[in-house]
From TrEMBL:
One GO MF term attached to the UniProt entry: peptide antigen binding
Function statement: Involved in the association of MHC class I with transporter associated with antigen processing (TAP) and in the assembly of MHC class I with peptide (peptide loading).
CC per GO annotation: endoplasmic reticulum membrane; phagocytic vesicle membrane
Gene: TAPBP
Family annotation (PANTHER family): TAPASIN
The protein's name in its UniProt record: Tapasin
Organism encoding this protein: Capra hircus
Length: 459
């Protein structure tokens, strides 16, 4: 049987199983270690709380074991649609310093440049990412751990921003709708009563990253009268608070609409919600498809071997390749079953390396028709969600033309002669130059993106 090549040419965490609405999220606390290096220490967030005491965690320092108070219920709402059998989101935590926004169009949001005393103290920023959720939350921990049976620090979720579609895939010419939700909890009743009743004004911006820069596509400031930059590429945002309770908490919507997308609009999108002296930002990866590459199999037989080529990346450390099966009989996400292996590294003259990841899927059933095999690549030079390429599984059934069991007529029309003759290629090329080849950046690698998609059926 011939093998099918799924080429993910990209030069360019920990994940554990989690059920829906998880009780605990394992994180890494990231801080500056000096000399341009970062140090990571284990941390955990206790989200779901019952009458029982939190479980002891002797492996964690009390200031990194957080029991989160979430008056808006946003964190639990964010996980309500999370698949039970999906890997846990990647989670990082770091210190955060409240500051006024630097953009001129947001100057009316913070007329006083000095932060109010109510914002003094320690702040933490938590970022979570997975194929099903991208979330950022600003936490305000209490100064002292609570002497419960397990030493734990109480923390309040003040500003939370999230999306349920962090990796949308849109066909060329269709409209892209990127959902965004957020919530804000006033710090204390005293702080809330010092302000006018109702939700505060806010700013919302959407940017697309290109060659390391964020290009502004849309900026809005509901509740303010200042001028904002004109929207680009026909972008529109549904930006508003969902409620007008006098003292909060408040939830809001910042969903982004981009009409009739083109291949040049594919890439990383940054959504930022600005409140006075507080900002929450999440990342989305928009993929634009021209067609769906296919792989064929008969019921009870295994599809051809899948090959995922990861080329010209640097450094060689930190690469992870995951195989996923999306859809299928239950319409859910799961890790793809089957035999998998990696090739040896191939070294190139410019110092970059390549390798190939292989998957031999098990025999399929007719109920799996339309499911998608995906190869997802993680690397330190990539966004947290990584990059992925996929093929759609077509399971042969009863032909509508000749009434026999066999390949359906669309495959015959494509000129395929036998199982395994279909080949799908997706190229997303990233060229990463090692430090020796990057004259302008002597200490880190330099990466340039050029995205192309090519699909073909080969006889």
């Amino acid at each position: 049987m011939k093998r099918v090549s799924l080429l993910l040419a990209v030069a360019l965490g920990l994940a554990t199983a989690v059920s829906a609405r998880p009780a605990v999220i394992e994180c890494w606390f990231v801080e500056d270690a000096g000399g341009g290096k970062l140090a990571k220490k284990p941390a955990a967030l206790l989200l779901r709380q019952g009458a029982e005491s939190p479980p002891p965690r002797p492996d964690l320092a009390p200031e990194r074991y957080l029991k989160v108070h979430d008056p808006a219920g946003t964190l639990q709402a964010a996980f309500r649609q999370y698949p039970r059998d999906a890997p846990a989101p990647r989670c990082e935590m770091s210190l955060y310093v409240p500051l006024p926004a630097s953009a001129k169009w947001l100057s009316d949001l913070t007329p006083e440049q000095s932060c109010p005393r109510a914002l003094d103290g320690t702040w933490l920023m938590v970022s979570m990412s997975s194929p099903f959720l991208s979330l950022s939350s600003l936490l305000r921990p209490q100064s002292e751990p609570q002497p419960e049976p397990a030493l734990i620090t109480m923390a309040t979720a003040v500003l939370t921003v999230f999306t349920h579609t962090p990796t949308p895939r849109i066909r060329i010419g269709q409209d892209a709708l990127l959902d965004l939700s957020f919530a804000y909890v006033p710090l204390t009743p005293k702080a809330a009563t010092s302000l006018a009743p109702g939700p505060p004004p806010f700013g919302l911006e959407w940017r697309r990253q290109h060659l390391g820069k964020g290009h502004l596509l849309l900026a809005v400031t509901p509740g303010l009268n200042g001028q904002v930059p004109a929207a680009r590429e026909g972008a529109v945002a549904f930006a508003a608070w969902d409620d007008d309770e006098p003292w909060g908490p408040w939830t809001g919507n910042g969903t982004f609409w981009l009409p009739a997308v083109k291949p040049s609009q594919e890439g990383t999108y940054l959504a930022t919600v600005h409140l006075p002296y507080l900002q929450g930002q999440i990342t989305l990866e928009l993929a634009i498809n021209s067609s769906s590459p296919l792989v064929w199999a008969a019921p009870g037989e295994a599809p051809p071997e899948l090959l995922c080529l990861v080329s010209h990346f640097y450094p060689s450390q930190g690469l992870e390749v995951e195989w996923e099966l999306r859809g299928g009989p239950e319409g859910r996400f799961q890790k793809a079953e089957g035999q998998r292996w990696l090739s040896a590294l191939r070294h190139h003259s410019d110092g970059s390396v390549s390798l190939s990841a292989h998957l031999q899927p098990p025999p399929v059933t007719s109920e799996q028709h339309g499911a998608r095999y995906a190869c997802r690549v993680h690397h330190p030079s990539l966004p947290a969600l990584g990059r992925s390429a996929e093929v759609t599984l077509q399971v042969a059934g009863k032909s509508l033309v000749d009434g026999e069991m066999g390949w359906a007529s669309p495959l015959k029309d494509a000129g395929a002669k036998a199982l395994g003759a279909a080949s799908a290629r997706l190229k997303i090329h990233r060229k990463c130059y090692p430090p020796s080849a990057a004259t302008s950046v002597p200490t880190t690698s330099t990466c340039l993106w050029t995205d192309h998609e090519h699909f073909a059926l080969l006889s």
